[in-house]
Amino acid sequence: MQKIPLNLVQPGMVLAKPVARPDGMVVAAPGTELTESMLSRFEAMGIGQVVVEGSPVDMEGGGDTAFDKRIERLDHIFRKHESDKWMNQIKRLVKHFFKMKAAQRAAAMAAMAAAKAEAKAKAEAEEEAKKAEAEGRVKNGEEERG
Amino acid sequence: MVEDLRTERKGKLLEVKDLPTLPKVLDEVAKLVEKPDTTMDQVAELISTDQVLTAKVLKMVNSPIYGFPGRISSISHALMLLGFNVLRGIIVSTSVFEVMTENMVGLWEHSLGCALATSTVARQLDLPDPEEYSVAGLLHDIGKVVATVQLPELKKDIEKLVKDKDVYYIEAEKELLGFGHDRINAWLADHWKLPPNIKEGLGYHHKPQLARLYPDMAHAVHLGDFFVRVFEYGSGGDDNVTYLRPETLKHFKLKPADLEQMLDHLSGQFVEIADLSFSS
Asked: Residue B106 class from Cβ within 10 Å (0-12 exposed, 13-18 middle, 19+ buried)?
């Protein structure tokens, strides 16, 4: 079971806990297999995160973001409360939050990189096509002249 | 004996001659506000006669902290939207700002961050007049500044104790001074005639469970202080989170999801206030 931000949820993942709107109204039951249209409806309702079965998202990775830095610092800034049960609970909550944000950030970065790569590939392909066309024209011209 | 020493130190702390002076116009405004037939326009006009102050106030009220970024163009507009209590608090903060940035590195950022975090708490909980919560957050550590200005030799000792024994700043204050900045805050609030709700936020942000008159304010500043320390935005004098009182979560009936929502809101906002200051 894993709590993940909505933008990392993929169609096909299965809910482990009910999903509720911010006003408390439950809109999907545990066991539901999520679909694209459900996800967009969740988004419209203002739902930020859901709990799904398994551990489909790698929350540890994320590279060097401000949120990773926050996670790193938590042990230090909570050092006076190591043996305090309540504060450890709070620390876990904060840690989970920062991990989620780091994963979110990493996913956004990856998506951006992918989009960039795609755009680059597309531009290259177009360039290639133009070149081929131009070459073709030159060839045709030569042929005509010849 | 111990009491005598405390009274003496209190006297020293409140010695008017060295205390950051509030702009003269504020006294006149206070008199004006007490008259029943005063209009808002008259108050605005009086404040506007101090141009430097006006510029500083407008800069502050247009920051994202007060919820109307970039949309307040005049003092009368600010008065209408934020009220006199908030403006009064901002004017107090402008007058200690310079000393604050000179004297304690990171404290101004910590104070701004706390203003933002406290108002976020108030807004998420739909508390009335969230701007007043911002001001309480902004001023919550003002006693630290005044203590180090009035008792300059004290500052080094506190910093040394914090470093050597790894204690909270407030613990060091209590050991060396006999009381913490929260107590100084309450005296200052009286001295500067800040409204009682803001006074309670300043005086009880380390022990909100004891606040009797305005517990919302004390708990909100307590939570705001915790948040800004979690993000380590600026520095309150030591690098620790405060002990988050379970009573605060209970008081506001906060669930873990509510805390996450507040953290989420804040994580995007700290960037926006990063270069906010009164210096021009």
From this structure: middle
**B-chain residues within 8 Å CB-CB of A80?**
168, 240, 243
Give the nearest partner residue to A86 out of B246, B261, B267, using CB atoms.
B246
Q: What is the pLDDT of residues A104-135, one digit of tens each?
A: 888 888 887 888 888 889 888 988 888 888 88
What is the complex's ipTM, to 2 decimals?
0.83
Q: How many CB atoms lie within 10 A of CB B118?
A: 32
Instruction: Convert the pLDDT of each residue in B24-70 to its tens digit.
Output: 888 888 888 888 888 888 989 999 988 888 888 888 888 878 878 77
**How many other CB atoms are found less than 10 A from the CB of residue B25?**
16
| Strand-pair category, A26-28 with A19-20 | antiparallel
Q: Is the minimum CB–CB distance between A108 and chain B shorter than 8 Å?
A: no
Note the maximum CA span of chain A: 91
Which chain A positions have a beta carbon within 8 Å of B246's beta carbon? 86
Contact across the interface for A97 and B263, Cβ inside 8 Å? yes
pLDDT score of B29: 84
